[in-house]
Amino acid sequence: MPCSFQISSFSALQLPDGKNPRMDFLDSSFFKADGSGRSLPTPSEIQALSGKDWGRPQPPPVRFEELGLLVKFGPYVTTAEAQCLWAIRRVLGDKVPVPEVYGWRIDGGRVFIYMQLVRGETLADRWKTLGTTDRSAVCDQLRRMIASLRQVQQDPEDQFIGSIDRGHLLDKVFEGEPPGGPFTSVKHFNDWFSRLPWLRFPNPEKIQDPWREFLPDVGTIKLTHGDLHRGNVIVSSEDPPRVLAIVDWAHCGWYPDYWEYCKAAYTCAYNGEWRNKWIPKILTPRPEVHEIFAEYTRALGAV
């Protein structure tokens, strides 16, 4: 049964158990459809349908058009992403549209997330065909959605920076680095983040970091998508365009309040119109922090 959430307080303890190798959300629309006693496709069936893509580090999802089902899987997929989808729909409902999650499987070291197939187009594909009025309308929708996401608060007795299930951070920026988190404060996170570029050098503890003092230790912890770009926004094919879903929550977690803007700016061209004109309509710009963030990501080779 779904847990009862309050916007003012959300605890990782309310999440379904991410270590459970088999999870079916029987209250989801997939299992209620037609009263047919549906079952989710097995990992073996997914493997057969994925064919030569099976062995890729990030294989494309398998689609079941007739079932309205999409299965995301691979060695880097985590149950934390499924937990995030599950929680957001229960906390925020339609305020932040995400694919409905139907369940997951852990099999052979891979995680399979079974979710709603959202039919539409990516904002990246539609963007060039949209006029200024429609572009502004879409960005206004996204602004309201992200504002709602950022209103979700942690349990005051259990505040941390980490993945949604209180695990280590899953952002791609940290790929190849020692796992980090959860952290008890913004300062502790910044201390860890700021040391990462120097770990590859001899005696890293003796290296004086030139940027650390510019990372803000005073701030709040926010629920963060972490990969907010046009390819992860699904919009309607008909006009006027409506945001149908924000997808790909693989990097989602609790982060310092500056992280969402920095990551959104990180995913696009420095001098591009999307970054300089449209992202500021969605997120409060933090250019002074992003300059320092960019120094760290370049030093990490995460570009």
TrEMBL record:
- Keyword terms: Transferase
Q: Which residues form the Aminoglycoside phosphotransferase domain?
A: 85-261
Q: Does the keyword Transferase apply?
A: yes
Q: Where is this region: Disordered?
A: 36-57
| The keyword Transferase is annotated on this UniProt entry | yes
Q: Which molecular function terms from Gene Ontology are attached?
A: transferase activity
Source taxon at top rank: Eukaryota
Q: What is this protein called?
A: Phosphotransferase family protein
